[in-house]
Amino acid sequence: MGIIHFIYFELLYRPVYNLVLFTYETLPGHDMGLTIIYLAILMRVILLPISLTGSSSARRMETIKPQLDQAARIPDAGRRRQHTEKLLKKNHINVYATALVLGIQILFLALLYQVFQNGLHQDPNELAYFTVSGPIDTTFFGTFDLAIRNWWLPLITSILLYVMLSITTPEPEEGAKLSDVWYVIALPAAVFVVLLLLPSAKSLFLLTSILFSVGLYMVAKYVFQVEPPTQQDAD
Fold first, then answer.
1. 31, 33, 179, 212: least buried by Cβ within 10 Å?
2. CA distance 67 to 137
3. Residue 22 CA from chain centroid, whole number
4. Which of 64, 61, 33, 55 is nearest to 101 (CA)?
5. How close are the terminal C-alpha atoms of the chain, in Å?
């Protein structure tokens, strides 16, 4: 348990805690809302190369969908896995890139939750790597407290997530069932319910991350003319 506690506390929680404090102390106005927005953008920029790899892999995955469907019908599990891996390698598809980006963000959000639940309510100098000037104000522009829950920020975040999924999800084939695109509705609804139970700082972080994703999509589509894949592309 000592090793697990050391890994979690000293290698994960405390660095994130100090990153939040350092950003809060460095940004003008000492505003926690701006701190969360800055950290969300910083994380997305750091993860951008992996995100782009994941997007590129997703597009290639659509183009070889018929071959993947054919491989899935191979009865022998070993040959099926080998054939699928060969297809992915041949087409330079990294199926783990998107999952890695998502996993890192979930881990950061979990640590951020602990920071707002416990860390910011104690003397920051107990865990800080540097001297903190005074108590931490967890409000955004002095208006609402990011350490407590509200309903409207999760609602805005969920609506924006729905919009993002609607414009970035490949168009379904003609006659497709609702079950083929269920996550476009179900995921925002689930996110709304979860965010209702968490400090509103999580909603602001996720909202900023979604806006970043929408911005990337718009740049790719309208600046570089990169069209999202459609189901017909795979046929």
1. 179
2. 55
3. 22
4. 55
5. 53
